[in-house]
Design goal:
Layout: H1 2-19, H2 24-36, H3 49-56, H4 60-69, H5 85-95
């Protein structure tokens, strides 16, 4: 019974985190646009499908991992200190279209 309750609590937390995920545009506007609007330091420009194609081929989970650890001039977490993996996924989806 305790195990079932614990599993239910974990499922509820997971659902609530997803329910409160930030929209991609909101994450972009607050944390990503500074670099991704102009392609600073090699950042792929937002809405440049060709620039994102090879990155998306790596898989979204790989891209989220890269954001979390940082790459080149991008610090760990990008510029979003309160983002979840779902928030990063939403921002990547927004920017890559």
């Amino acid at each position: 019974m305790k195990k079932l309750l614990a599993m239910t609590a974990v499922a509820a937390l997971t659902l609530s985190a997803s329910a409160f995920a930030q929209e991609g545009k909101a994450v972009y506007d607050k944390a990503c646009q500074v670099c991704h609007s102009m392609g600073i330091a090699g950042a792929p420009k937002a809405h440049d499908a060709a620039a994102w194609e090879s990155r998306l081929a790596q898989g979204v989970d790989t891209l989220v991992s890269t954001v979390k650890t940082g790459k080149g001039a991008m610090p760990p977490g990008g510029m979003c200190m309160d983002c979840t993996d779902e928030d990063y996924k939403n921002a990547i989806e927004f920017m890559s279209k």
